[in-house]
Amino acid sequence: MALAFTAYDAQIPLIKAAAKAGVSYIVPCEFGSDPLHPKLNAENPTMNMKRQYRDLIEELGVSRWIGVVNNPWVEFSIRLGLYGINLKERSATFYDEGDVKGNFTTLTRVGESLAAVLALPAAELSKFDNDFVYFSSFYVSQRDFLASAMRVTGTTEEDWTINSISSDKVLQDAREPSADMTTRMMTLFALVFKQGYGGDYSGKVVDYEKLGLAVEDLDTVMKQCV
């Protein structure tokens, strides 16, 4: 059974039922950024909300969990302009210089990567017991996303309105007592493009050659979003 990534409490009866039925593995509603990165967790309030469900699985002592780390989904984020690249308005807002690279994953790659991981022999799969698996389609910066958008639209920088915003200012605004939850949650997009805040987990990415999955093409994905 699959749930939306925000269906946190709906997991509780399912986790308990899975334990009662002797289910070996549960993939909880993670599908986000690195929950083990201390600076990222300290700045974003949503990161620590998911731990209780992993703890419940362990407390029941029957199933093991595998958490998926993929950073904000590529297609979803591009279409909504969450990476700072607005395709419809042809505008780009960079955090700082827009040149910090991070790992980003398509919905398709998340699904096929997870299926491939769960199909591994038991000895290989057990390496992920009660731990996170890191998926990635592209290791890119905001400027790389903009360059791809320009290639697929046949445009140049002169056709785009390009601005920048301080990532420190975004974080400062989110810390204000008057900041609403949306403002605080949106800090995630500033953080994954900020050096040292966990957006770059390239050293942890699963071995795609071992999983038999081909390299993806950013321009192909971008074209689908235009």
Outline the fold blueprint.
Layout: H1 11-21, E1 25-26, H2 38-43, H3 51-60, E2 64-69, H4 74-79, E3 85-86, E4 91-95, E5 102-104, H5 107-118, H6 122-125, E6 131-134, E7 138-140, H7 142-153, E8 161-165, H8 167-175, H9 181-185, H10 187-191, H11 208-211, H12 218-225
Residue ranges: pLDDT <50 for 5 or more in a row?
none
- Overall pLDDT metric: 94
The shape is globular
Q: How do the helices and strands follow one another from N- to C-terminus?
A: HEHHEHEEEHHEEHEHHHHH
Largest sheet: 3 strands, parallel
Number of helices: 12
For the secondary structure, the number of strands is 8
Fraction in helix: 40-55%
- Structural class given helices, strands, pairing? alpha/beta
User: What proportion of the residues form beta strands (DSSP E)?
Assistant: 5-15%
Distance between the termini: 31 Å
Strand order of the largest sheet: 1-2-6
Rg computed from alpha carbons, rounded to a whole number of angstroms: 19 Å
- Quaternary organization: single chain
Can you walk me through this structure?
This protein is of the alpha/beta class. Helices cover 41% and strands 13% of the residues. It is built from twelve helices and eight strands. The protein has helices at residues 11-21, 38-43, 51-60, 74-79, 107-118, 122-125, 142-153, 167-175, 181-185, 187-191, 208-211, 218-225; strands at residues 25-26, 64-69, 85-86, 91-95, 102-104, 131-134, 138-140, 161-165. The strands form three sheets. Strands 1-2-6 form a three-stranded parallel beta sheet, with helices on one face. It has a three-stranded mixed beta sheet with strand order 3-4-8. Strand 3 (85-86) and strand 4 (91-95) form a beta hairpin. Helix 1 runs parallel beside helix 3 and helix 7 crosses helix 12 (218-225). The longest helix has 12 residues, at 107-118. The two termini are 31 Å apart. The mean pLDDT is 94.
